[in-house]
Amino acid sequence: MKLARIAAMLALPAVLSLPAHAATEANFAVQTTGDLVELCAADPKEAMGTAALNFCHGFVVGAVRVQQVRGEASKRGRMFCLPEQPTMSRDTAIADFVTWARAVPARLAAKPFDSMFQFLGAKFPCSAPKKGM
Predict the structure, then answer these.
(1) 9 burial class (0-12, 13-18, 19+ CB within 10 angstroms)?
(2) How many CA atoms lie within 13 A of 102 on its CB side?
(3) Whole-angstrom Cα distance, residue 109 to residue 131?
(4) What is the CATH number of the domain that holds 89?
(5) What is the DSSP secondary structure assignment for residue 111, as one 8-state letter?
(6) 55-90 confidence digits (pLDDT tens)
(7) CA–CA dist 132, 116 (Å, integer)
(8) Which of 46, 69, 74, 86 could form a disulfide with 9 if both were Cys (CB 3.0 to 4.6 A apart)?
């Protein structure tokens, strides 16, 4: 089923390819993209590392699923279209998001949902319908 594949791709386990960080309790409020980035790039060896990574996974999967349902029901359409067959691992998807967010420091101050969906829209744009169909 499509949602299961999406969840599998974006459940987002620990990002091993990124420098490890120590998430703080304040990050769990997820007020900014920077908070989400710190949770998603947490070091599982740190005191809150495993909790931070698990929170990151749940936050992202929940947000993606809600946005997909809203996009299907909306007249404006979807903000992103994940492939039927995942083209990357969850680790890679999270690593790419964290790298993307950190590449432009202003993104870290943005709302986490806005940044996450902007990233997904750029990474997985929806194809325009073909003319004549």
Answers:
(1) buried
(2) 14
(3) 40
(4) 1.10.890
(5) -
(6) 999 999 899 888 888 877 666 778 888 888 877 877
(7) 33
(8) 86
Task: Specify the number of domains making up the chain.
Answer: 1
- Please check whether residue 116 lies inside any domain of the structure: yes
Q: What is the mean pLDDT of the chain?
A: 81
Whether 65 contacts 3, CB under 8 Å? yes
Largest Cα–Cα distance of the chain, in whole Å? Answer: 57
Check: CB of residue 81 under 8 Å from CB of residue 64: no
Task: Enter the tokens of residue 85.
Answer: 């067959």
Query: Letter for the amino acid at 44?
Result: P
DSSP code of residue 28: G
Give the CA radius of gyration of the chain. 15
Q: CB count, 10 Å around CB of 91?
A: 15
pLDDT at residue 127 in the model: 76
Residue ranges of the chain whose pLDDT lies below 50 = 1-18, 130-133
**Both structure tokens of 17:** 């390819």
Q: How far apart are CA 107 and CA 121, in angstroms?
A: 15
Q: Which domain holds residue 106?
A: 2-16+25-123
